[in-house]
Specification:
341 residues, binds zinc ion
Length: 341
């Protein structure tokens, strides 16, 4: 006998049993709880490390290269970092994920006073506008400043114009001052960028065609210095800039894994031609062994491998570390999101 209220003909008991057996989510669409757990631990670890921080800290917010969303098998977000010194936050690059990852560190948006962009590839700037908008309604000071290559000023003005209506709605809803303008300093070349009570920042021009200029930065805080290669081929100028720094964060690619990874991505719809993409990688980026050479030449204490290509989880830390360790004799850290250094 069937349940008359159930046109499918299934009995209520069978229906409930079926529901209990059915997966809550499909395996391909959502991560399992086991996959979510480590990320939560990383956030908790970052919060604890920042709470107990005695000096300047660097947090890797996103450690993957390229405009690649966090597909299954990836835990790394696009490139972004935050440095925290004396209660002030300095964000470097705004790849997709920067706003959430910043929030997950537990840092207040009140602290966010400076944003730096290395270059205008989307994996470094595509979440610039969302960071400003969500930062603004989360307490970011209206005096926040942005630094980066031209046309950052025009981009900022255009973005605020595009979101003018949205900003005005929220300003009215929440009775807060609207975000109407941001102070932008365009950095067209090498030299001093800014200085405040905590840090002196300088830039170099790196080699990342056709992007011009693409920048590397060095942050000299009172207690430590942190240099960033930005996106570049192995470059003497990076070793020179990073000379004697405590930390060098350098982009890195693991060439043996790139071809296989690229074939798999193209099969899933990545709209590039294999040869053209590989030519771009060679003309624009640094193999991890060359990164070891640059770090050794610079004489830094710690090398952080980040902006990883491919930024997939199946390449072990030891695999990443070994080619650099052939040349660099200091500490090598393989970057993972929310790592505090
Ligand atoms: Zn990049
Ligand atoms: Zn780039």
């Amino acid at each position: 006998m069937t349940d008359q209220s159930n046109p499918s003909g299934l009995s209520r008991r069978n229906l409930l049993a079926g529901l209990a057996a059915a997966p809550i989510v499909t395996a391909s669409a959502e991560p399992s709880l086991a996959q979510i757990a480590p990320a939560k631990t990383a956030a908790q670890k970052a919060q604890a490390a920042l709470k107990n921080a005695g000096g300047t800290k660097l947090v890797l917010l996103g450690t993957s290269a390229g405009p690649v969303p966090t597909f299954p098998g990836r835990t790394r977000h696009m490139t972004s970092h935050v440095m925290v010194s004396n209660g002030t936050a300095y964000v470097l690059d705004c790849g997709l994920g920067v706003t959430n990852e910043y929030a997950r560190t537990g840092l207040s948006f009140h602290a966010l006073k400076n944003i730096f962009i290395t270059h205008h590839h989307p994996d470094h700037n595509c979440e610039y506008a969302p960071l400003l908008l969500i930062g603004w309604v989360s307490g970011m000071p209206l005096t926040v400043r942005a630094f980066g290559p031209p046309p950052l000023k025009e981009m900022t003005e255009d973005l605020l114009k595009a979101y003018k209506q949205t900003i005005e709605f929220w300003a009215e809803d929440f009775h807060i001052k609207p975000l109407t303008a941001i102070e932008v300093k365009e950095i067209a070349g090498a030299g001093p960028v800014m200085q405040d009570d905590n840090v002196k920042v300088s830039s170099i021009v790196v080699n990342h065609p056709p992007v011009k200029p693409a920048l590397g930065y060095r942050f000299d805080f009172k207690d430590r210095s942190i240099a960033f290669s930005g996106d570049t081929t192995p470059l003497e100028a990076v070793a020179h800039m990073a000379k004697g720094a405590d930390v060098l964060v350098h982009e890195a690619m693991y060439v043996p894994a790139i071809e296989k990874y690229l074939h798999a991505r193209i099969a899933k719809g990545f709209p590039v031609k294999f040869d053209a993409f590989m030519a771009h990688m060679k003309a624009d980026h640094s193999a991890v062994e060359d990164v070891g050479r640059i770090a050794q030449e610079a004489g830094v204490k710690t090398l952080v491998l980040s902006h990883l290509t491919p930024g997939i989880d199946t390449i072990s830390d030891d695999t990443w570390r070994a080619p650099a360790a052939k040349y660099f004799k200091g500490e090598i850290i393989v970057g993972h999101d929310l790592m505090v250094i």
